[in-house]
What we know:
mainly alpha; 3 helices; 67% helix; disordered N terminus
Amino acid sequence: MAEHFGLARPASAGALLLASLVCVPAMRAQVDARPPAGSLPHPDASEENDPFRNNPELRERLQKGRATERQRRIVDDANRLVVLTAQYRTALAAHGTATADDQKLLIQIEKLAREVKDRMRGM
């Protein structure tokens, strides 16, 4: 009957035992190598995960760079706000009433003002 399905002979019990002795431990080692779900600590859970704990100078330099970049963005956005409000004021003076384009400009001004306010708060 085994020849009917293309098999030369059925697998012997010894071959099956040998395969299980070789394959199962190897598969179990792969499964055991993974940590259980939820066992890894949160990255911010302790100072052990802080890459700058051994290099406070690098940490300070990065903080200063971030503060400088934040300040630069606030100043750039504030200058852009001045330009947009001047454009809006000029458009209102020219038309007498607010047009659809003026409304779009006003929406841009409001959005940028909120972003500057949030950035100044440190958000």
